Amino acid sequence: MAPATSWRPPFACIDVHVHLHPPRLAEAIQRHFARDGWVAHHPFEPTKVAATLAERGVERFCFFSYAHKPGMACELNRWVAETAAALPGAIGIGTLHPDDPDVDAIAAEATGALGLRGFKFHHSVQRFHVDDERLFGVYERAESAGHVFVLHVGTLPYRDPFTGVERFRRLLARFPRLTAIVAHMGAFESDAFLALLDAHPNLYVDTTMALAPAAGRYVGGDPATITDAALIRWQDRILFGSDFPLIPYDYDEERRWAWDRALPDSVRRKIFHDNAARLLDRG
Ligand SMILES: [Zn+2]
User: Fold this and answer.
1) What average pLDDT does the chain have?
2) Do residues 15 and 245 touch, judged by C-beta distance below 8 A?
């Protein structure tokens, strides 16, 4: 097999799961991961991340940071908007924290004046539930406006009270038309999350660290539990994501699995480009 750096998909990709943070937060996150023996080796500076992605044939990418406590979201969203404006192909996704009493105003600024496409929640890090009723106003407006939520609501790799399909089902029961991308294929409960796709036309999953064999030793998942048949069945609802630059291995390890599996080329094109283009380009 050719070395990872010389292999590349034969078409341009869209990556819906990239992490960019202001410098001090980026350093703190790197230190946190390094304590667990997880060293990314990729530069975290936004311009370098964008340059690497462009060089790897990524034409657009969604990126986000996160407010791990109240009082941060407003400033972070402004940083995300500024950063997105300065980087070709970058699509900024905001953050919120429900402990902020003005969460509705912060959300309105993010998707209004700042032009962000939606919000990313990382429930284990931010320590709130996806069906927290303090966010109902945000979800309600998002449902009609089509704002996108990227939700790390699956149990990979944390298995804590803030993750799991049960509360996500409750959220969808209340907001069935919400546009949401469940990160990491919903692992470790992929089957349960995938089963929700049929009844919810605006629901997606992303492939981030759930299908690359290289990811398993870091997050404990087993890509083999997600079958080719499942990828083919839900081929219109799966979006490529990478977790770059957090991943402690080469970027193309997050893409190569799809060429190692016996998938039709049309399915690869949907997962790595067309599905995200349709979602991001709609009105
Ligand atoms: Zn991530």
Assistant:
1) 94
2) no
- Using the mean position of ligand 1's atoms as its centre, give its distance from the Cα of residue 19 in Å: 6
CA distance 274 to 270: 4
Structure tokens at 13: 């990709």
pLDDT at 140 over 70: yes
Q: Which domain holds residue 81?
A: 12-281
Protein residues near ligand 1, an ion, with CB under 5 A: 243
The alpha carbon of 18 and the centre of ligand 1 are apart by a number of angstroms equal to: 7
- Residue 6 resides in a domain: no
Q: Report CA(215)–ligand 1 centroid distance (Å).
A: 12
Q: What is the pLDDT of residues 63-73, one digit of tens each?
A: 999 999 999 99
CA atoms lying within 13 Å on the CB side of residue 159: 6
Q: Is residue 5 part of a domain?
A: no
CATH code at 45?
3.20.20.140
Q: Is residue 53 part of a domain?
A: yes
pLDDT in tens, 28-71: 888 887 777 777 789 899 999 999 999 999 999 999 999 999 99
Is pLDDT above 90 for 166?
Answer: yes
Other beta carbons within 10 Å of 233:
14
In a domain, 101, yes or no: yes
CA–CA gap between residue 46 and residue 26 (Å, rounded): 10
Work out whether strand 203-206 and strand 238-239 pair parallel, antiparallel, or are unpaired: parallel
Q: Is the pLDDT of residue 157 over 90?
A: no
pTM of the prediction? 0.95
Q: Are 151 and 282 in contact (CB under 8 A)?
A: no
Domain count, the chain: 1
